[in-house]
Amino acid sequence: MKHFSFLVLTLLSFQIASAQKIKIKLYNNTGYDLDSVMIVDKFVGKIEKGEVAIVLYNKQLIMQGDVPFRRPIAIIKNKKAVKVMLGCSTKTKKINSGSLELDINFYEANEGFRLYWQRHLDTLN
After folding, report:
1. What is the DSSP string of the chain?
2. Rounded distance, CA 73 to CA 51, Å?
3. What is the pLDDT of residues 51-93, one digit of tens each?
4. Mean pLDDT of the chain
């Protein structure tokens, strides 16, 4: 029984240590309160204007350049969102762990608004 307990504890600790973890620090630079924020397939919730949210992403993340492959998605009160289109997947890479600091930015055109990523300026140094 002692050996079985040791084996279970060893396997459990190995699984915890090998879990993929990406810490993402999000800066809401849109000028608007964001509701129902989604990063790829992870629900973040609400991020008020000017606030910073920290998200732990426990899966592999596909990156295009220095930002996540898919655009951020959120609801902005009294604003119409443009349908999110898939981007080109050239020059993508996968990351399993690490830290990212990203700005969520806002662009508005006649057909509606889009959110987009930008590497947080403090991390460029």
Report:
1. -HHHHHHHHHHHHHHHHT---EEEEEEE-SSS-EEEEEETTEEEEEE-TT-EEEEEE-S-EEEETTEESSPPEEE-TT-PBPPPPP---TTEEEE-SEEEEEEEEEEEETTEEEEEEEE-GGGG-
2. 16
3. 999 999 998 999 988 899 889 999 999 988 887 666 566 788 9
4. 83
Note whether 82 and 112 are within 8 A (CB): yes
Integer Cα distance of 21 and 44 in angstroms? 16
Cα-Cα-Cα-Cα torsion 109, 112, 117, 121, nearest 10 degrees, comes to: 50
Q: How far is CA 45 from CA 21, 29, 36, 125, in A?
A: 19, 16, 5, 30
Q: Which domains does the chain have, with CATH numbers?
A: 20-124 (2.60.40)
CA 20 and chain centroid, separation: 14
**Nearest partner of 59 among 16, 32, 27, 95, judged by Cα:** 95
